[in-house]
Amino acid sequence: MAGLKTIIALSFVLAIGFLLVILSSALWKKYYTLLVVATYVVAPIPNWLCGRAANNDDFMESSGNGIVDFGRFLTGFLVVMGVALPAVLAHCHIIANLAMVMSIIGGFLIYGTIISFTMFFQEDEEF
Q1: pLDDT along the chain (127 residues), means of 10
Q2: Where are the chain's structural domains?
Q3: Contact at 8 Å (CB) between 113 and 40?
Q4: Which entry of 23, 34, 37, 76 is 20 to 30 Å from 43 by CA?
Q5: Considering the entire predicted model, what is its pTM?
């Protein structure tokens, strides 16, 4: 069971992630790197929705998990896009290289916090 210290630590890491992404765009006055926040915030949603939509049948082990795999694919695509977008912008000289590094590190902190939050506060189903 996660406690108050876990919530405070996750909030602190999330704030640092947002600070890095905001600074990466505000210091150089190029606000394209804020798109990284959108991709990392939206990234867990397909996995969550497709996990809920999957048919969890206790009696049949061979039930299809195509929808779960599709959700994982979309989540992976969004996470990779969160890393690749600043790299492409830096390669095209739209943003600075240091802005790219700050944006990628901030994005990983944001996504890692979201994943940690779901792991720590997930309720176990017991029947």
Answers
A1: 84 95 94 88 88 68 75 93 94 96 93 87 66
A2: 12-54+65-119
A3: no
A4: 23
A5: 0.81
